[in-house]
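Re: [help] complex structure
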Amino acid sequence: MTDTTETLEHRLSRIHLALEKEQLERVDDVLSDLEPAEVALLLESLPPAARISLWERVPGEIDGEVLLHVHDEVRGTLIDDMDHAEIVAATTGLDTTDLAEIFEDLPQQVAADMLRSMDALQRSRLQETLSFEEDSAGRLMRTDTIAVRADVSLETVRRFLRWKEAVPDNTHMLMVVDRNGRFVGVLPLARLIANDPEMAVADLMDSDVDSIQVTMKSTDVATLFQTHDLTSAPVVDESGLLLGRIIIDDIVDVIRENSEQALMNMAGLDEEEDLFAPVMPSAKRRAVWLGINLLTAFLAAWVIGRFEAALDQIVALAVLMPIVASMGGIAGSQTLTLAIRGLALGQISRTNSHWLLRKEIGIAALNGVLWSLVVAVLAVLWFNSIAIGVIIAAALVINMLAAGVAGIVIPLMLKRAGIDPALSGSVILTTVTDVVGFMSFLGLATVFLL
Amino acid sequence: MTDTTETLEHRLSRIHLALEKEQLERVDDVLSDLEPAEVALLLESLPPAARISLWERVPGEIDGEVLLHVHDEVRGTLIDDMDHAEIVAATTGLDTTDLAEIFEDLPQQVAADMLRSMDALQRSRLQETLSFEEDSAGRLMRTDTIAVRADVSLETVRRFLRWKEAVPDNTHMLMVVDRNGRFVGVLPLARLIANDPEMAVADLMDSDVDSIQVTMKSTDVATLFQTHDLTSAPVVDESGLLLGRIIIDDIVDVIRENSEQALMNMAGLDEEEDLFAPVMPSAKRRAVWLGINLLTAFLAAWVIGRFEAALDQIVALAVLMPIVASMGGIAGSQTLTLAIRGLALGQISRTNSHWLLRKEIGIAALNGVLWSLVVAVLAVLWFNSIAIGVIIAAALVINMLAAGVAGIVIPLMLKRAGIDPALSGSVILTTVTDVVGFMSFLGLATVFLL
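Output below.
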């Protein structure tokens, strides 16, 4: 029985120490207890040199599974360390679905050789899987389905299963098909056991089952699994022919990746980013995001520059102006995050977005008034000028209202344009709250104080 | 067969339209096709009045399941609309685990009455479940486990199952216990079917199985399910007594909630927040977050105020200073997000944090130098002063280095202090990048330009 109580963090410390002291038997000791997915997490947690040392100690028979479980970018670093023969050996044991997932990350020469070394059936299966779109049900589907005909008896099914011997342990239902291979229902193993052997499959099967079109998007498949509490589901083509099944293990990965994605994208990072990527490529990737944000910052600076006269005469404006921009940014990002989650769950549409907008404007108005009073009092006390207090209060209310509107409108517009709102939303929002913040505060000051 | 191709968004539009036009049969029409979890998503997507209209049309027999699936805050609004008898009726069909999840949200009077109306067994089960900590395995566990003894034959097990009749369709393994009820292994149904009826359970069972301590934290249970590709696992107490099982359906919810949480917390929002919460309570909750950020903003303003002399003489400083603060903020939030994901996955510990810090400093240095050159050139062209270009470049490099360090150190310190880094990390980070940004830019200007 594996020790389920040791945390990853503790294992990490143990293996790190063992690697540093080059106590290789200790490394092997930790490794021997671990599942491939755990080895994957460990590898991802190590800086490049230690990662490669550990990778070279990982038993060859789980190499393939480990490659499957790491993020794309980490997979690249591991494959770079393997020679041709190792890659072929690692991937040979994988089933078609898993192989397809990593196939495109393999060096071209290796991929070509692998295709050549496969038998015709394997090759055509792999090519069929690869022909489905990357994020579709076809790529998630397993083809190890056990299908039986509806018109046979339970006894026949039992004999068939006994003859087949290798029924996967995680099977809990059999697929039922008609004579043309079209899906007609499922037979839970529990019913197969608990009923009279003379009964026909057709009498016991459940035909009110959700079947999944092979072209369905994987995020939609994940939603279906969650809302219908499924643990596995049949996959069919447009004519209803049974092609395979999707199991919840693979759906869990889709769900996790999707939610990680929103978090990472909001900071302009890729969900597949390697925590320990080398400095140079990481810096390059982040440079793009910083560059885009620099444009925003210069736009804000340009707005400020329009009001040099005011800034020149009243230094308090320069001191207080970041408060207006910052409060707008914070309020806006709250609204934006709520909208991004709502959009991800499919809960925001044209029909309810007006209501949402009204609600967010209401919240912005209340908080705008509340905090602008606080800011006004502090500003008056600080700079001894009632006019400045009134102006910053007005600017703050304006900017928070703008933030509330932008927090809803921007993600909706991006979504409609087919752009990921999590990725671009925050930059555009900041642009709005900076520009509106500086413009309203400095603009009002120019009109009323100069 | 339900139509699995209609998106939530489309259903939402249909039901919204039907509610608006008061075409109640159409509403019932949409509802009749839906699973409780889908009804829950729909209810969450509706503003208060429409939500209540829809809730009143939801068939009573799925009320309990729907209540289970909505976010805590929405559950409150639905329960408020139900009378005593409706609540009791809705919750009667739920099993102990599900009931425990919503029990604490029920009005006190209802909860007391329900406890009184239960039989002794039900009541003690519920109280036992409630005695486990909120986010522990004990709360996730189902007690509908089917357990068999290791020393009986497969034939006996089959007869037992046939006699029991109601084996849940989603059962795919039986638990095996010794004569004292201690967990010894599992018997997959697939093996029960595919083997000779004369064999003993002990010969076929899998005893190398991960069992879960009832006190284990639910996030750790979720990690275990993911890394070990489990679909169900036995739950035991410290003496090894079998208490129940956890199934993957419930784990999927834990995984989804955890990842939603990081996203929402980074914006100072609660994961259970209702998209359509009324304005007043929403405004109140967000006010706290805005207030905390206002302190940050005033701290930054105070720092700027220290340099009034410089700002008074050189207006370009006021124009350019937000660029330094903003670039630091963006760079820092990238590092912070990466660290928060790493911490959530358990991939960052004391042993590798130094390496991570070095890497982030390296990235900050490269991007700092790159973008400070760009900014310097633009600043020189804009304000015709080489000195200002040099100073803003130096300040930018300093602030981006500070951002890289803060992006790693802050979440690690928060984690060690037991504070959620996603919730507090971004405020503290912004404080650092604002203060360091303004101080370095205006400070250098004061020293070299005045």
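The first helix of chain B runs from residue 8 to 20.
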